[in-house]
Amino acid sequence: MIERAKFNGVDKMLVTSSYLQEAKDVIELCQPHPGLLYSTAGVHPCHANDVYTKTESITSPAEYYAELKKVVLEGKKSGFVKAFGEIGLDYDRLHYAAADIQRDVFKSQLDIAVEVDLPLFLHSRAADEDFGNILFPYLDSGRLARGGVVHSFTGTVEEMKILVDKGLYIGINGCSLKTDENLEVVKHVPLDKLMLETDGPWCEIRPSHASFKHHLAVKNKDENGQPVKKPAQLLPFPTVKKEKFAEGTMVTGRCEPCAISLVAQVVASIKGITEREVSEAAWKNTMDLFHLE
User: Fold this and answer.
1) Quick check: 278 and 172 in contact, CB under 8 A?
2) 76-93, pLDDT tens digit by residue?
3) What pTM was computed for the model?
4) Average pLDDT over the chain, rounded to whole?
5) Residue 9 CB partners (closer than 8 Å, separation 6+)
6) Which residues lie below 8 Å from residue 21, measured CB to CB, with a gap of 6+?
């Protein structure tokens, strides 16, 4: 996967984590690849209940947050942890954690974010009002001067503009490009606030998505001059179903970092500019926010 990413022009990858143990695991994953792999550390809203789950070593939320802060600071010192997250709210998946618990964990982590002084890697799904009510006072007061990115953005043009006005970046991936309404949002994202992502193994661009039907399938042809039938055809790697997996192949339906080139193609097509312009803007924004070496 790493070799495919590098072959397709990916020079830096930010590997996100969703809970305490995963934050430790991701840092360990990054260590053999300095300068290529970096990580985030935080509790995803769908894992908010983890904070209240007692284990042999952690018996209270206070202990959980203390250990999380320790991991973040040690990771920051080592140069691998570049963002605090993925944190936020997800009201589409309340079966994982109730809204009140998500809000409590989000606010508690913003308090930690003030102390660790890292940019935020943010998640917001169907929770725009509560998300802003909790986050914006921290931004407006200057307590979170490093800002952050709202990743995998699927909100409206109006919601996007509010976030940009607060100084936040907007992360675009396959899930951000599903519908015609999504594409209209991308058209209005300022280049100086744009980030590209894959969110692998999720958020691939699919044949049913507006991004594929209106942009990739139209702009790209197969060896017979016909429109391609699926996005994977546009990547220079063999793709097989998971049952037939073999070393060196991509798995159908599993998004990888190498597929970020497809996201760049769509964004460029939507905005009517070159892929180079899109890629250079996203690169600069990413390096500026996360201070990658």
Assistant:
1) no
2) 999 999 999 999 999 999
3) 0.96
4) 97
5) 261
6) none
